[in-house]
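Narrative summary of target 7.
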Amino acid sequence: VQLQASGGGLVQAGGSLRLSCTASVSIYSINTWAWYRQAPGKQRELVAHITAAGSTDYADSVKGRFKISRDYVKNTVFLQMNSLKPDDAAVYYCKAEKFGSVYWGQGTQVTVSS
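Modeled conformation, tokenized:
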């Protein structure tokens, strides 16, 4: 399984971005999806998670601002990020789990200017 992440960029505080993670296989075969982020000097942290059944979970710091969703036709998982803050700046990674195997996308940089 290959994952291609995209959508990062530079945005002003308060703005929005939508990250995409496109899989090389049908996402019906993926058990869970997640978005993580890693800021310089910090550990990688879980941002959002969605199960095959559609259950979602979010880090407290992004609840109410970020939304994870899936498009089965495009084999893509999205992370809609609204009301961005400078603290949201990081490299964002998508992760897929399929029958015990874990796959990571290459990361996409999000920069938020204050």
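The longest strand covers residues 90-98.
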